[in-house]
């Protein structure tokens, strides 16, 4: 089982995390000279899982540690990749990463080693889109200060390696695996459900993206899940109708939350 950890030498957060992984844990990182969002499948070795070590940028500039599957949910491919294409996603990988990042961050914070950070999922967005194995981004946000903070790099590094060990040894609980629809970019409802231990989440689809049937089909062909969960108040009425119609046509179990 091969996990490829990918870092860009043009990304300060990526370099920070990669340095911690190499120097503190003695694990190899696959380094590239281009931006992570410029990568395609041709740039990478074949692996069972791809974990991108990355920076996160936001207008608010709030310190954050995030997890998400990459892909383009609509025709908009402003941030690279192919329109209406998503990478495969693994609900267990994504959620164990989120929980390990949260738990490690809390431990560091209690010891006074790191300041206040938000820990959350993000919804599906940006490239790459054409990889053939489950892919996830783990990110430090949201400014140059946080990207270069050694302790933030250590939190991500430890959490990534703990997650890999858990998956290799199958040391995790059996839970419901889900795709989540609705809510904002940081998926607060699904983040809370994941951290409370109720579900594993793969793709998260925000209210601001109305995905068509081609993309809906990918969301259930490129992941292994048990159910679709709809944030009923956090989803547009016309989208809810289309999604439910698709789920029922395809025999996909779904619930409101």
Characterise this structure.
The chain is an alpha/beta fold and 257 residues long. The chain has one domain (3-256): AF0625-like (Aminopeptidase, 3-Layer(aba) Sandwich), CATH 3.40.630. 35% of the residues lie in helices and 23% in strands. The protein is built from 7 helices and 12 strands. The strands form 3 sheets. Strands 2-1-3-8-4-7 form a 6-stranded mixed beta sheet. The protein has a 4-stranded parallel beta sheet with strand order 10-9-11-12. Helix 2 (91-110) crosses helix 4 (150-169). The model has no long low-confidence stretch (mean pLDDT 97).
Descriptive terms for the model:
D-aminoacyl-tRNA deacylase activity; 7 helices; Deacylase_DtdA_archaea; D-aminoacyl-tRNA deacylase; alpha/beta; metal-binding; Aminopeptidase
């Amino acid at each position: 089982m091969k996990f490829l950890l990918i870092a860009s030498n043009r990304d300060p957060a990526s370099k920070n995390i990669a340095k911690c992984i190499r120097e503190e844990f003695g694990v190899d990182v696959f380094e590239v000279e281009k931006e992570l969002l410029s990568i395609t499948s041709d740039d990478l070795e074949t692996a069972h899982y791809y974990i991108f070590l990355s920076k996160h940028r936001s207008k608010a500039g709030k310190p954050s540690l995030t997890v998400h599957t990459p892909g383009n949910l609509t025709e908009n491919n402003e941030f690279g990749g192919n329109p209406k294409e998503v990478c495969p996603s693994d609900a267990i990988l994504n959620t164990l990463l989120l929980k390990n990042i949260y738990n490690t961050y809390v431990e560091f914070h209690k010891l006074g080693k790191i300041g206040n950070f938000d820990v959350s999922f993000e919804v599906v967005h940006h490239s790459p889109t054409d990889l053939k194995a489950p892919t996830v981004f783990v990110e430090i946000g949201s400014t140059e200060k946080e990207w270069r903070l050694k302790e933030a790099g250590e939190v991500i590094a430890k959490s990534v390696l703990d997650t890999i060990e858990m998956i290799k040894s199958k040391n995790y609980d059996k839970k419901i695996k889900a795709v989540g629809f609705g809510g904002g970019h940081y998926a607060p409802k699904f983040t809370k459900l994941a951290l409370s231990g109720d579900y594993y989440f793969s793709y998260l689809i925000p209210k601001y993206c109305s995905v068509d049937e081609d993309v809906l089909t990918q969301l259930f062909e490129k992941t292994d899940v048990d159910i679709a969960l709809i944030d009923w108040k956090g989803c547009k009425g016309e989208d809810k109708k289309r999604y439910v119609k698709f789920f029922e046509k395809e025999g996909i179990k779904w619930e409101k939350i």
